[in-house]
Amino acid sequence: MRLFVSTVAALTLSAASLAATASVTQADMFGNPAQTSAARRTVVIDAKTRWVTVERGDVVKFVANGQEFVWAFNGMASSFDLNRVAPTGALNRDLKVYVWPNAEDLADK
What we know:
Elements: H1 2-19, H2 26-30, E1 32-33, E2 41-44, E3 51-55, E4 59-64, E5 67-72, E6 79-81, E7 96-100, H3 103-107
Parallel strand pairs: 2-4, 3-7
Antiparallel strand pairs: 1-5, 4-5, 6-7
């Protein structure tokens, strides 16, 4: 648990310091759209969905309100509002996505 807290703190500080520079893009922070064929997981968002958890590097297809979009979670952010990357109208409320370090990230520490 201590390693996790240290990792999250380091990622947060890194993201905050990089966000202060003009060269950091939205893709750097949150990841980027991906092709449907790249998705390894599908998440159906409905009224019962309270949040979404993914691992860094995951490519996820989201289905919500009759729309689909695919996102590659390869950015620096550890959490953000999914509305920041969802197509207009796909989500009718705020929905947080939590991006956990993947096994390779943890092994490098």
